[in-house]
Amino acid sequence: MDVQTTFLDRLFQSGLLIDTGVDGLYGRSGQFEDVIAAFERLIDKFGGADGAEAMRFPPGMNRAFFEKSGYMKSFPQLAGTVHSFCGSELDHINLLQCMEVGDDWTKDQQATDIVLTPAACYPLYPTIARRGKLPMSGGLFDLQSYCFRHEPSQDPARQQLFRMREYICMGTEQHVTDFRQSWMDRGIEMMKAVGLDVTIDVANDPFFGRAGKMLANNQRDQNLKFELLIPITSVAKPTACMSFNYHQDAFGAKWDLYLEDGSVAHTACVGFGLERIALALFHHHGLEVKHWPSKVRQALWG
C-alpha cells in the first residue's frame, strides 16, 4: 500500500475525512473544519489590514462567463458542468426504467446554465467589469469558494471538490507584481508560524494538449506562477498549498477591465488551498490537534 493511500486510510479511520465512495470527494469532521477556520483567521491577520473587498460566490458560475473565460481551451480535462433532467413524463418513465435495469440514465440529461466553479476568482472578473473603470489605485478583493476539478485520485491532497481562498489584485503592472511579491514573503512567514517547512518554486498550470506544453513552458519562462510546496504524501513531490500568479493583462483584456487612464488592468492573485493546508498540518503535527506544538496552536487559536 503506498504512502498516499496509507495517509488517506488514517484520515478515514480518525474520522477527519469521511469516505463517500468517490475518490477525491470527502466529508470533513468538525475538527478538520475548525483547523480550516483557524487558518482562515490567520490569513485575515496577515491580509486584513490591506482593505480588500470581501466577496463570496457559490460553487457554480454562469456558463456564459465560463465559456468566455477560455477555460475549456486550456483545461477541458478538469472542467465540470451541471446537467439536469428536462424531459416529459414519458422521458421520466424511461429514465426510471434505465435505472431499474442498470442502464445509463444520464444520457438524456441536458446542460444547465451553471458550471462548477474551477477557481474562486473566475466569477470576479465579469463582476468587476460591470462596475466600470477601476481607480488608478487599483482594486483588491478577498474571495473564498468551493471549486471543482475533475482529477479523481487517492491522494487526499488532490480532491475534486475543495475550497480556495484568494486575494486578487487589479491595477498597474508594478502594483500587482508588488502585491504578489509581498504575499510570497507573507506565505513563508505564515507557514513558519504554524511549524511547516516550505519551499517556493516556479510552476505552471496543467494546460491540455500539445499547445498546452508551449503555454506551460512560456508560463515558467516568464516566472508567471510560483507555488509554495509542502511535503504531504511525498517528499520527492511536495504538494502545492499556495500559489502566486501574475496574469499580466490577459484577464484585463478578456473582461474589459480598464483603469481610469484607459489602460488595461493587470491582475495577480494569491491562492490558498485550504484542505491542502489542513492536511499538511495534520500530516506534520499529528491527527490529534491537542498534541500539536503549543506555538502552532497559539498561532492558530491564540
Automatic annotation (TrEMBL):
CDD domains: Gly_His_Pro_Ser_Thr_tRS_core. Keywords: Ligase. It comes from the Bacteria. One of its GO terms (molecular function) is serine-tRNA ligase activity. The keyword Transcription regulation does not apply. InterPro entries: aa-tRNA-synth_II/BPL/LPL. The keyword Transcription regulation does not apply. Its EC number is 6.1.1.11. NCBIfam families: PRK07080.1 (NF005479). This is Seryl-tRNA synthetase. It comes from Rhizobium favelukesii. The lineage of its organism: Bacteria, Pseudomonadati, Pseudomonadota, Alphaproteobacteria, Hyphomicrobiales.
